Amino acid sequence: MCFCHWPVVRERVRAAVPDWLAVETADGDAWVSAVAATVERVDLFGVTVSRPAEVLTVRTYVRGPAGQRGVVVLALYGDDARTRTALSELFRVTPGDAVPRTLPTSERRRVLDDGDRRLFECRYEASGEAVGLPPDSLASFLVDRQRYFATGPLGTRLVGSMGHDPWRLDRVDATVTGAPLAPVELSIKETESLVHHSPGVTLSLAPPTVA
Fold first, then answer.
1. Three-state DSSP class for residue 64
2. DSSP state string for 111-155
3. What is the pLDDT of residues 18-41, one digit of tens each?
């Protein structure tokens, strides 16, 4: 998994998330992240339902009605129809038309292509050297989330859980070009993106229930 983060003006994020959620900030900014992942498989009730897939989600950081920390998925892209459909139903978001890919080069690359146009590219090289994830750090704020929020039919307030072992983050050198934020009409601040890399975890996503 490769996490690319950008600080965004809070008011712009406020307009992109449901009004029953509070936008959460860190270092004085709201944040939006593109999370690019290679999904080895998706299992439902112990049955594998999809092949390996590339998935990219765009998310922001919020607090729920009771102050619970979580994320809202703003956009989702995938190159496998079953994986894309399963995740879009959980997060209550319409899948995008662009296609995420990894490119096998000496420097690892994650890209998001929209036809002939490249929306996003991250070139990175992970050292394999683990870095700490203190609970009060910006890295923990951006990576370690265990809930997601969504809005269901007739405005139903929904919350789902994300269960996983503790994240391992590797030290990484990265160069990011573009940002997959145009579909959600968010503009980033004039600053370099912050990038985290993880060799991966087993992630359990529970269907959302009424918040």
1. coil
2. EEEETTEEEEEEEEEEEEEEE---TTSHHHHHH---EEEEE-GGG
3. 999 999 999 889 999 999 999 988
Which residue type is seen at 178?
G
Query: Do residues 133 and 169 lie in contact, with contact meaning Cβ atoms separated by under 8 Å?
Result: yes
At 6, list the tokens.
């950008």
Which residue carries 């929904």 as its tokens?
Answer: 158
Tens-place pLDDT, residues 172-193: 999 999 989 877 788 887 778 9
Work out the burial of residue 105: count CB atoms within 10 Å of its CB; fewer than 13 is exposed, 13-18 middle, 19 or more buried: exposed
Query: In this structure, what token pair is assigned to residue 61?
Result: 């950081």
Residues for the chain: how many in total? 211
> Domains in the chain, please, with CATH?
2-210 (2.40.400.10)
pTM above 0.70, yes or no: yes
